[in-house]
Amino acid sequence: MTTNYENINHIKTLSKKQFDALYELNQLINSEVIKDSLIEQALDLVINVINAERGLFTKYDSEKKDFSIISARNVEQENIKVLSNFSSNMLQEVIDKKEPVLYHDLQSDPHASQYDSVQLQNIKSVIGVPIIQNENVWGVILADSQKDRKEFTEENLSFLKFFSNLFSSALERVDFVERIQDENLILLNQLQANEQLPDMIGNSDAMRKVAKLFHKVAQSDATVLIYGESGTGKDLAAKAIHKLSKRKDYPYLAQFCGSIPDSLLESELFGYKKGAFTGANSDKKGLLEVANKGTFFFDEIADISSPLQAKLLRVLENKEIIRLGDTSVKQIDVRIVVATNKSLEKLVENGEFREDLFYRLNVFPIKLPPLRERREDIPLLVNHFVNELSNNELKIDSNAMKLMQQYQWPGNIRQLRNVIQRAVILCNSNRIEAEHIIIENGKNGDGFSGTLKDYEMQILKKRLEEFDGNRTAAAKSLGVSVRWVQNKIKEMEDDKKILTDKRN
Ligand SMILES: Nc1ncnc2c1ncn2[C@@H]1O[C@H](COP(=O)(O)OP(=O)(O)OP(=O)(O)O)[C@@H](O)[C@H]1O
Ligand SMILES: [Mg+2]
Fold first, then answer.
1. 226 and 347 share one domain
2. Closest ligand 1 atom, residue 229 Cα
């Protein structure tokens, strides 16, 4: 911290003006959070109180043995830009002594009058105080006068000592605040650049790419079409868009459109007027109206009937809804997100889906990759679900993990989650083992949708594991030559290498 300059009794020698200035500085210190402004205002205060003509605040770089101006001012409260306007010898003297220096009459002082810089600048009197931080000289406050001799007094020196003490603790605080502010900015920036979606696990290149798209599109009001195989996380992604958007504090509503009677779906979405149909005993708001200012997610959009497709088109085109049995049109402000695991293009081709609606929905299509195309995410997801489903009580064995990394997951993340849920139930110790991993139909090959090479590799890996890596035994059991096995292993290693090279 600060060094205690000599004697507190000095304070008694301060004039009212100087006391007031210290008080003012104290207030400044408590209100100012920007270092440069703090210094500038403090310097003006010093110049004014001790009747100096000029004041200088310099920072000292002890490694380079160099000074830099932080602020230099004259009585007119103008900035002085060049350090050589001041006496460098004086600055050095303060640094060397680590003590305040005061010369009432420089020109008649046998020692100081020898300084070139004093002569050059024609300095008559000068006062200099070190600012100490962590026992090192952080900088120097210098005040001088080119006009008058005998300008500064011992009293001024006491004042500056107090001033410098107060100031150095303020510096620490401002440094701290500045550091926090910088860290804050960095964190904020990282958050914005974050390539992950809220609640969605996945760090693979494939996931990061789609996450970037989601982050971008979330900032707009564009309609988003999410497609991808079943269980890839379309529901979750729709919610993520909402959470990332400026609508996040307004409602998020979702409606599943598959296998639901048309009339029911319509009254849910658009609402109805009393008497619109039997059972409509009072007016009812539709979900689209309830979602005003928020986001509405149509899940399985491919399944909606042709009359409803027409109504939805109106919503998208005019942002208008009409309640069933009503005549008045209501304006709504809702962002639409839709999802499907069917190909809307194909449905359009077959005349099962309106082309105009398709174009309205296909403004910003995003495909969620199947799990088998982002295998790197499997361990992350497995650990996430094990923790979630076992309340952090279970761990997963490496063989069980391997098994799951090799599987193709035709049902994607939903299937993976189900498998882990089963394993958590079956597990009777604190570790999920391979035997607890029961994949539908008991065979890993079921629902396989990878390439033949993938399939070969998967079987070979399994056999090698079964035979503890013994290539001859694995080859024999597969009815192939040892050479075949060796070639495949080499292929596998090469593939892995390409993958790691790519990542690096
Ligand atoms: N990236 C992910 N991180 C964590 N959990 C996920 C992720 N993606 C999906 N899930 C979970 O997997 C399950 C299936 O996800 P979701 O219902 O969003 O899939 P979907 O694509 O909508 O499937 P479907 O087409 O069958 O409706 C959910 O339990 C969901 O929470
Ligand atoms: Mg879904």
1. yes
2. 25
Indicate whether 226 and 299 sit together in one domain: yes
In a domain, 299, yes or no: yes
Q: Cα separation of 375 and 111, whole Å?
A: 79
Residue keyed to tokens 């056999």: 463
Q: Is residue 195 part of a domain?
A: no
The β-bridge partners of 62 are none
**Structural domain containing residue 405:** 372-503
**Choice from 200, 208, 232, 377 to test ligand 1 binding pocket (greatest atom count within 8 A of CB):** 232
Is 248 found in the same domain as 163?
Answer: no
Q: What are phi and psi of 366, to 5 degrees?
A: -130, 130
Pocket test for ligand 1, best of 337, 413, 420, 421 (most atoms within 8 A of CB): 413
- Can you tell me which residue has the tokens 């060796």? 486
Q: Is the CB of 380 under 6 A from ligand 1?
A: no
Helix intervals (H) in 122-196: 154-193
Last residue of a domain, one of 320, 345, 369: 369
Which letter does DSSP use for residue 370 in this model? P
Question: How confident is the model over 402-430, as pLDDT tens digits?
Answer: 999 999 999 999 999 999 999 998 888 89
User: Measured between alpha carbons, how far is residue 454 from residues 398, 475, 488 in Å?
Assistant: 21, 17, 11
Model confidence pLDDT, tens digit, residues 268-312: 899 998 888 888 888 888 899 989 999 999 999 999 999 999 999
Rg (C-alpha) for the chain, rounded Å, is 38
Of the listed ligands, the closest to the CA of 412 is: 1
Atom of ligand 1 nearest to the CA of 235: 18
